[in-house]
């Protein structure tokens, strides 16, 4: 899953707002106090942000200036930098693979703060944890691919077509699409092509 910086910040703002038991209306009121409008007599007057604007911000559909990011960090009592750290949510269908910056993209770990000076025990521990996370992701991908391959073998033995990529928009459709795409990446192009087992089996049957 790819995210823009605005989406990363928006997701973190929403998470912090929920943790604080704050409604979108209340957050809009706090922002309106920090960024008041000037009335005719020159005095500042609170200008609450509409809840729709808060929701747009949280969805990553509203670009933010530096002052607004600092204001959000102040409201939630966190460091401004922490709002830029990609964090996965339980409802995410895929892992965050990269943060896009125009035509460039960064891996999520590039936005993580260092645990300590380079070479320190904390920094080495952080590197080890990141290597473990990458290995876990790789093993999960291989496990999904193996599951697809076993299903293809069973289908081939039955003379059936292999599992096809679903076209629906249900969560289970997205998960199966991801698993099948990973299997194609791992097994297609092998000799023989392991994702074309039905035709291989048919050719062997014809030869007999």
Order of helices and strands: EHHEEHHEEHHH
Overall pLDDT: 75
Can you give the helix content as a percent range?
40-55%
Using only C-alpha atoms, the radius of gyration works out to 25 Å
Gap between N and C termini: 47 Å
Question: Can you characterise this structure?
Answer:
The chain is elongated, with a radius of gyration of 25 Å. The strands form two sheets. A three-stranded mixed beta sheet has the order 1-4-5. It has a two-stranded antiparallel ribbon with strand order 2-3. It has helices at 5-19, 24-34, 51-59, 66-76, 121-157, 171-187, 197-207; strands at 2-3, 37-38, 44-45, 98-101, 104-106. It contains seven helices and five strands. The chain has two domains: 2-111, 434 Repressor (Amino-terminal Domain) (Orthogonal Bundle); 121-207, no CATH class. The relative contact order is 0.10. The chain is mainly alpha-helical and 208 residues long. The model is unreliable at 191-195 and 197-205 (pLDDT under 50).
Describe the structure in brief.
This protein has helices at about 5-20, 25-35, 50-60, 65-75, 120-155, 170-185, 195-205; strands at about 1-5, 35-40, 45, 100, 105. The protein is mostly helical. The two termini are about 45 Å apart.
């Amino acid at each position: 899953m790819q995210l823009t910086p605005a989406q990363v910040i928006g997701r973190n703002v929403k998470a912090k707002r929920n943790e604080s038991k704050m409604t979108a209306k209340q957050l809009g009121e706090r922002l309106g106090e920090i960024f008041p409008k000037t009335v005719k007599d020159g005095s500042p007057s609170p200008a609450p942000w509409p809840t729709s604007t808060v929701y747009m911000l949280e969805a990553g559909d509203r670009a933010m200036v530096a002052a607004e990011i600092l204001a959000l960090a102040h409201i939630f009592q966190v460091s401004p930098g922490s709002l830029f750290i990609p964090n996965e949510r339980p409802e995410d269908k895929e892992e965050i693979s990269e943060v896009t910056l125009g035509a460039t993209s960064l891996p999520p770990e590039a936005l993580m703060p260092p645990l300590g000076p380079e070479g320190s025990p904390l920094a080495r521990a952080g590197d080890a944890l990141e290597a473990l996370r990458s290995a876990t992701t790789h093993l999960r991908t291989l496990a999904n691919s193996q599951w697809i391959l076993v299903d293809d073998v069973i289908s081939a033995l039955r003379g059936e077509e292999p599992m096809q990529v679903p076209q629906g928009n249900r969560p289970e459709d997205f998960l199966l699409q991801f698993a099948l795409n990973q299997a194609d990446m791992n097994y297609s192009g092998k000799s023989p092509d392991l994702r074309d087992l039905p035709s291989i089996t048919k050719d062997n049957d014809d030869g007999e």
